[in-house]
Amino acid sequence: MTSQEIRQKFLDYFKSKDHLIVPSAPIVLKDDPTLMFSNSGMTQFKDFFLGYKTPTAPRIADTQKCLRVSGKHNDLDDVGRDTYHHTMFEMLGNWSFGDYFKKDAIAFAWELLTEVFGIPKENLYVTIFEGDASENLDRDQDAYDFWKSHISEDRIINGNKKDNFWEMGESGPCGPCSEIHVDLRTPEEKAKVSGLELVNNDHPQVVEVWNLVFMEFNRKADKSLEKLPAQHVDTGMGFERLCMALQGKSSNYDTDVFTPLIAKVEELSGKKYTGILEDEKDIAIRVVVDHIRAVAFAIADGQLPSNGGAGYVIRRILRRAISYSYRFLGMKEPFLYKLVAVLQDQMGPFFPEIQKQGKLVSEVIKSEEDSFLKTIENGLIRVEKLIQQTISDQSKVLPSEEVFELYDTYGFPDDLTRIIAEEKGLTIDEQGFKAEMEKQKLRSKADSAQKVYDWVTLEEREENFVGYDQIESETYITRYRKVENKDGEFYQVVLSSSPFYPEGGGQVGDKGVLENATESFEVLETKKENGLIISLINGLPKDAGAVFFAKVQATDRRNSQANHSVTHLLHEALRDVLGTHVEQKGSYVGPDYLRFDFSHFNKMTEEELALVEEKVNHKIKESIALQEFRNIPIQEALDRGAMALFGEKYGDNVRMIQFGSSKELCGGTHVKNTIEIGHFKIVSEGSAAAGIRRIEAISGDKSEEYFTNLENQIAELSQLLKSKDVVRSIEKLIEENTSLKSEVEALKKEKAKGEIGEWKNAYEQKGNKQLLVKKTSLDAGSVKDIVFQLKREIPTSVTIILSDADGKPMITVGVSDDLAAEYQAGAIVKDLAKEIQGGGGGNPGFATAGGKNLDGLENAYQKALNI
């Protein structure tokens, strides 16, 4: 059977079993905050399982496009390296929404596989959920008993929670499952080793082909399980694996799902596919034919490649395919877009979106290939050099600064660097790279829409940085270039003798003035590029070859270097207080404040922060003189006890900065004595990333301003309170406020009591049920208390309260427990919330929603009366 016949036979079978055949939902999810992509067949039916929507039919079957490249279900790294993992795949599925359950689902699966598709029964094994004591889940005895009537008991295998309890994500519908595995080995291989021993052991010819999920629970955000309103069946059969089994192949890629694509790649590349797992050429072909499907259908479903979110995932998949084809197939020109036509022929009859959007898909892919291939060639050479250098340094981690330079300077994607590094058994310094990215974002704002002209070189002169020793110098412009951006026209200059510190090591670049007897130019920023110290000025001198005087903005430099020196003292203090696991992971040093990122897994306590502050300020008051070792061998510096920051790349000779026991390798500017720092104050402490904490702090002039502002605020408070004892006056206000709040709450409760009696008598009999729809101005807390009381006291009731408290619309719905199977508070409140332009939710028995449109409460009221 061809793949198209297999797909059709599946759908025809379930149509004969009274299933409604529905089309695949889009692979890209636009309105589900928990998922970027449809990662399973059941995604489009999630609201049915949760009871939020009514199914279009109690029995449904389809083939669903799925994508697993991020989150919990991530198969990307396995793709191409084995015979059966894919990014995009088709999931054949049959669904029951409160209709049949385990018995029929098992019977359907067995009949289809063995009688319709003709898979020999002796080649099949099944697994059932063995239970899990940690979640109080029993063994799935029902599934075991039903399977016994179809297959011998020695082919029914207990499976653990990992394999036999299916969950679509961190939260959502879930339940025990029963997998069907097929043994595709030769008789000789089967005689040597029983298939029982190979199930769920990643054997390429003993694979899971179908998973029958029995949806019974909903995994809540707090990880607890709650029973779904009804029992459902959710099955998923891997279309590609089924084709492998039915076409007698040992690899998904040998089926006609992929062979037309492979043939096209062979034609375009001139490379022959042999199917060898370890062959890099064959791996590349498998990656290409797999990834083109994922990218093409994602674009067809409306997701263009981009630098963020789902678009970034698609771009990464595409670039992975391009890099493999570039490196192992020798494809230096765009060609992936030519595969879209093959996909249209293969899959168009079942997935019309690829037919309709084929031109767009091709053009987008070609554009992406063109763009990426322009950056890839030189980048790959540089990455290889970086990898070799890292290996020769006996390291396993590529330094973040180098990886970022590849990304920022040469446009080489960090994800490709990461992929290539992983292939060599290496990683990149992720946290350091993130810190570099953060700095880059700040730079990109200033550089956006910027046009940079070529350098104009003047008289050849030696170019030196003298800023460690002086903040003014006589100098010449050695070269300049024009820069145009949204703010106007500027010039970048390189000086023969520059006192301006270039942005680096976390420290901001210097500003200042470049002047002579007749002209003066503002130095707006200073950066380093390809070894050059470049200052940006607001004009071009009439005589660029004249002698100039360069002057650093003294106040900013003084404050910046105070903050830089204090980061060294802070680093040492953190290690003293928290432990030697603390390492700097990034910093920002400017004239206004400093930011220091460091490795630590817990939020710092107030006591720890106070102790760190105390230690740093103690060092400041000690008047410790700077000891600078400007150019010493790195080993000597390390022998002296200098800290080398993890991920930084150092030369043979380094600069070591020492303040007493604090010793670090550093290229920044520093105070000559710690007493110049003045005072250190931590402003905030928080999380920068997983395992990385961030401190923001001030020193020098800014710390003086901080305490001056505090004094002014206290003086103002003293005036307002008409008391010099500010603390006691505020305590008195708090006591009075607490007392008044208690009185208000008591009044609210009295009012609520009166409302309860009135509301109890206001229920309207609707058949054998009771409905209360009531408007009120009570606050949300009072309404909640009343609704819960009414739920308990009024049987077979639905209670809907519409509140306009504080001028904000609020809808509250309560459903008595005896109606929980028939009415869902969450579904009701979501429907009514549309009238107030809002949203909300809850559980089947209680739900709330807020909104923006107060006038919509009347419409919601009328709508509620008709429930």
The CATH topology of the largest domain is BirA Bifunctional Protein, domain 2
Count of DSSP E strands?
A: 35
Named at the architecture level, the CATH assignment of the largest domain is: 2-Layer Sandwich
For the record, the CATH class of the largest domain is: Alpha Beta
Distance between the termini: 52 Å
Structure class: alpha+beta
Count of the separate structural domains: 5
* Estimated share of beta-strand residues: 15-25%
Q: What's the CATH H-level superfamily name of the largest domain?
A: Bira Bifunctional Protein, Domain 2
Averaging pLDDT over every residue, what do you get? 89
Query: Any low-confidence stretches, pLDDT <50, length ≥5?
Result: none
What is the radius of gyration?
Answer: 34 Å
Major β-sheet annotation: 9 strands, mixed
What is the molecular shape?
Answer: globular
Count of DSSP-assigned helices: 24
The share of residues in helices is: 25-40%
GO molecular function: alanine-tRNA ligase activity; aminoacyl-tRNA deacylase activity; ATP binding; tRNA binding; zinc ion binding
Catalytic activity: tRNA(Ala) + L-alanine + ATP = L-alanyl-tRNA(Ala) + AMP + diphosphate
EC number: 6.1.1.7
Domain Alanyl-transfer RNA synthetases family profile: 1-709
